[in-house]
Amino acid sequence: MTDVYYTPRDIIFSREQMLWLIKWLPYLEDENSWPPDPQETGYTDAPRVQRSRNYRAPFETPAGFVAEVRCRLKTTGDTGEVLIHEVQHGLESYELLSRPAQRALNYISGWKRRRQAFSQWEAEQHHRIRNHKKYGFSGHILDKQE
Q1: Cα Rg for the chain, rounded, in angstroms?
Q2: Alpha carbon 135 to chain centroid distance?
Q3: How many alpha carbons fall within 13 Å on the CB side of residue 115?
Q4: What is the value of pTM for the model shown?
Q5: Residue 47: Cβ-neighbour burial (10 angstroms; 0-12, 13-18, 19+)
Q6: In which element (H, E) is residue 99 found?
Q7: Which of 109, 108, 87 is nearest to 98 (CA)?
Q8: Would you say 91 and 2 are in contact if contact means Cβ atoms under 8 Å apart?
Q9: What percent of the chain has pLDDT over 70?
Q10: Which of 111, 115, 81 lies closest to 18 in space, CA to CA?
Q11: How far is Cα 8 from Cα 120, in angstroms, rounded to an integer?
């Protein structure tokens, strides 16, 4: 995941993009600018400055993404802190994260914020998993319990 790069235009808050944003949160907060693209272009001349009409300050886009990620993480409480800790200490793959961090990441990912509280969403996910194991794909009861 080290070679992955997203522009603000690319962000749709997928799991991979949320991991990338969490990894870059300190940079976005401290530098108030978007992380540099790690790919070298091969050009050695200084870039030409092209003027375009942009009615936003350069720090507004990073600040907006920081606010969105922080707001989503805040809804997960301590579980979100676990996610931040793991990602910022090198666990950049969904499979490497602890189960609580995976749940927090699943909750905060997606184009829109969830309206359902994290605790309710977690209980619903647990219920779905338990019923999936009990009923299987066909919907028939796999083990009869009386």
Answers
A1: 20
A2: 32
A3: 0
A4: 0.76
A5: exposed
A6: helix 99-108
A7: 87
A8: no
A9: 72
A10: 111
A11: 31
- Burial of 17 per CB tally in 10 Å (0-12, 13-18, 19+): middle
Encoding tokens for residue 90?
């090198």
22-38 pLDDT, tens digit per residue, is 999 999 999 888 988 87
Cα angle: 82, vertex 27, 47; to 5 degrees: 150
Contact 33, 59 (CB under 8 A): yes
Question: Token pair of 55, please?
Answer: 């009615």
Summarised one tens digit per residue, pLDDT across range 71-111 is 999 999 999 999 999 999 999 899 999 999 999 999 999 99
**DSSP reduced 3-state for 141:** coil
Amino acid at 134: K
Residue with tokens 């066909």: 138
State how far the Cα of 120 lies from the Cα of 95, in Å rounded to an integer. 24
